[in-house]
């Protein structure tokens, strides 16, 4: 019983911080976000453009020293994971400066892993053994896998809504075009009837 309680507490303590956001990027502008983390922390940025124009956006990740860690142009979706190289605020920017008219909507998540524990690294051999315990590694992998599955489900739901909206829009256009074609056919039929009627009409000379 004691082992089960300890294992449950261990699972809760390994739960990662996950934040999901929707941001609207106006034309010829950019939106930036910051996370203050410690050295050696695993950071993951996942994003997808869900609305606007050609569904593309410029992405850039910068460190506290101002150097670019990742930079991408006209990307529809993506995922980038890295380990922080120094303490400080890391910046994530979505730029829509390539567009002058269209507003873009971006869905993104920022996952922050657990920062390395100096006491566990520089502690006693028993602490080092616990840090590298197989059970702990398995739980960490399971936690990361569950987070990934959750993100994939969120993106699948967003894509399903986008595709449903596209299908509804396409269906409405098809119905309107079919109705327009029917009106044209009726008008042509009526016109031909009147034309043929006048062609065969016998006029009397008074």
Automatic annotation (TrEMBL):
Subcellular location: Endomembrane system; Membrane
InterPro entries in UniProt: Emp24-like, GOLD_dom, GOLD_dom_sf
Keywords noted in UniProt: Membrane, Signal, Transmembrane, Transmembrane helix
Transmembrane regions listed in the UniProt entry: 174-196
Domain annotation GOLD: ranges: 30-112
Family matches, as Pfam families: EMP24_GP25L (PF01105)
Superkingdom of this protein's organism: Eukaryota
Gene Ontology terms: cellular component: endomembrane system; membrane
Signal peptide from the UniProt entry: 1-20
Topology term for the membrane: Single-pass membrane protein; Single-pass type I membrane protein
Major localization listed first in the record, in broad terms: membrane
Family: Belongs to the EMP24/GP25L family.
Protein name, UniProt field: GOLD domain-containing protein
Species assigned in the record: Ramazzottius varieornatus
């Amino acid at each position: 019983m004691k082992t089960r309680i300890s294992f449950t507490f261990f699972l809760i303590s390994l739960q990662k911080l996950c934040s999901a956001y929707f941001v609207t990027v106006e034309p010829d502008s950019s939106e930036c976000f910051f996370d203050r983390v410690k050295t050696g922390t695993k950071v993951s940025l996942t994003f997808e453009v869900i609305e606007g124009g050609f569904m593309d956006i410029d992405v850039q990740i910068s460190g506290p020293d101002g150097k670019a860690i990742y930079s991408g142009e006209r990307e529809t979706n993506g995922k980038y994971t890295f380990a922080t190289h120094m303490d400080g605020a890391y910046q994530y920017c979505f730029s829509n400066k390539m567009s002058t008219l269209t507003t873009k909507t971006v869905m993104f998540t920022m996952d922050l892993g657990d920062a390395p524990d100096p006491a566990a690294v520089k502690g006693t051999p028993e602490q080092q053994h616990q840090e590298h315990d197989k059970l702990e590694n398995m739980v960490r992998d399971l936690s990361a896998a569950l987070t990934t599955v959750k993100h994939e489900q969120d993106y699948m739901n967003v894509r399903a809504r986008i595709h449903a909206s596209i299908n509804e829009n396409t269906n409405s256009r098809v119905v309107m075009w079919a109705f327009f074609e029917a009106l044209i056919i009726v008008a042509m039929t009526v016109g031909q009837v009147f034309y043929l009627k006048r062609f065969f009409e016998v006029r009397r000379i008074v």
